[in-house]
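Our example copied in:
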Amino acid sequence: MFEGQPLPDSAIVVLATPIILALIGLIATALLRVRFQREWALTVWSAYQIKRVWQRLADESARTGGTITSHGLGLVCWGILGSLWEFQALEELPSQWGWTGAGWGMLLGLCTLLTRHLGGWIGAWVTMEEEAVQRGFEVDRHMRNWLLWLLTSLLVWELSQNMGFNERAIIWSHALVIWVGWLATKWIRQIQSIVQKRLHFSWGIAYICTLEIGPSYLLYCELG
């Protein structure tokens, strides 16, 4: 209490849930870096050297353990977004918050992953371009790791600014800006893959619109 008024909660208390999730993501990142060098290299190349991913040798392909770890990082990323969405929707700060939103976010991420792979398998069967579809899956998986790291950086910045409960709408808007920017970058990578693979452009656009742009737009309308 200060002059009869309750002291505001510190940023580390207010953002406890996404911070815990980000720490879990950093531990998983360290595991990826130490144990799964191929998946780590592909993730790094996907952001700024995509041609290196296309030109990799057969023994540079990711193994199952690295792929599973990357998918885990993606689910943590969805959990952070879900907790921040719940945060901006609160009218007052309860003693524990964010875990419900994180759970729903992870569930949405899992459903998105399964739906994308199901749609991709159907698309591969129709177009007979299984390799191109697998490349699309890879780009999505690797770029989602980068989204997790961007959101973690955002949380560190918000902590340095001591952004509290009253700024929850600002924090959420920052997260949305990062998400939209990340989506645009990922779609550019997808289009580059289509052009590099010399696919029929209409099939590539159908894939991006059906499994990328359409669902992302609907989700943005719900979250925004």
About this structure: Confidence is low (pLDDT under 50) at residues 1-7. The first helix runs from residue 11 to 14. The chain has nine helices and no strands. The CA atoms of residues 33 and 40 lie 6 Å apart.
